Structures are given as C-alpha cells and as structure tokens.
Amino acid sequence: MTDDRDHADRVFIRSRWGTNRYVYNPHNPVGRALIVGTLIFAVSAMYLLYHPDLLTDSGKWNDGELRSAVAAASAELSRDAYLGPSSFTPFEDVLRDTIAQHGPGTRDTLSVTRASQRPEPDLLNGGPERADYTVTADGTDTTLCLNVFALKQKMALGYDSIAITTTDGACEP
C-alpha cells in the first residue's frame, strides 16, 4: 500500500471504503478546498430550499399587484363560499393567505385588519353577515377596504353566497 504523502499531488484518489469510486483527496490543498466548497454549497442549497424568497424581492408590493391580488382573492373566496366573517378560522387570516397566494409578496408583508365588529354566528337560523376589512401591504401606500357580505346557510357550516366589494381607503369603524 502506498503512503498518503505519495498521493498528495492528486486531487482525486480512489476510495478506501471498499468501492471503486474516486473521492476528493484531503491531503491535497485543492481537494480540501473542494471538500469545504461542497459542504458550503450543500448547506446553502438546503437553506435556500426552505427560504426561497431570499433571492427575490418578495417583500415589496406595488399598487397594481395589490389591487389585482385582492380582486383575484375576492373572486376565489366568493366562488368557494365556505369560509366567511363568522367562521371558526378568523376571516382576516383567510383573506391574508388568499391575497398572498395571488400576489408577489408573502403573508407577512400584508396587513389585513377587521374594521367592524365580528358578526355573531347563528348556526341554527343562518342569515346575513357583514364585516369590513382594511388591507395594506409593504412597499405601497395603497389602502383598500373590503366589504364582505355573506349569506349564512341554515343549519350548515358553509355559506349560500359571499360578495366582496373593494373601495379605496381605509374602512370606517
């Protein structure tokens, strides 16, 4: 068997673990640099896999993006008509998540606050529910007011219909 110092000039050497593969030579400075570089690359790739928004400017919205995301989210929530203002899940969280799905920003860059009282759920009788939500986003001065009108189903968890209208400016409390 040859001494490790004999292979110090080679960047790759045969593995000693019973395989016939070539591996980086830790006794060669270039081999050591490749080992460290591979580790740094692997750790960086794993970090970016779980934080993909680091490479984009996803924290900033502009006026048009916010308006189109709110319009798309309103249409989706009106069409689904499952969650509404008195749902068990806070509707401002549902709005924030749905708007973020249709825009360039993340959920954390949006602010959705209820500007009216939360409607009391009436599971037995159903009926109309109304609530107002103010929407803002990082990177834009645009403030939108979402007026949500929902018709609750009688003796059911869902809604018959949900209508969401959007106006400029903050909602009046």
Structural class, from helix and strand content?
alpha+beta
Treating each run of at least 4 consecutive H or I residues as one helix, how many helices?
A: 3
Strand content: 15-25%
Task: State Rg.
Answer: 28 Å
The CA-CA distance between the termini, in Å, is 84 Å
Largest sheet: 4 strands, antiparallel
How do the strands of the widest beta sheet line up side by side? 3-4-5-6
Inertia-based shape = elongated
Proportion in helices: 25-40%
Count of beta strands: 6
Low-confidence stretches: none
Mean pLDDT comes to 85
Order of helices and strands: EEHHHEEEE
Produce the secondary structure layout.
Elements: E1 12-14, E2 22-24, H1 29-50, H2 63-80, H3 91-101, E3 110-114, E4 127-137, E5 144-152, E6 159-168
Antiparallel strand pairs: 1-2, 3-4, 4-5, 5-6
Helix pairs in contact: 2-3
Please tell me about this protein's structure:
The protein is 29% helix and 24% strand. By secondary structure, it is α+β, with helices and mostly antiparallel strands. The strands form two sheets. The protein has a four-stranded antiparallel sheet. A hairpin with a 6-residue loop joins strand 5 and strand 6. Helix 2 packs across helix 3 (91-101). The termini are far apart. The mean pLDDT is 85.
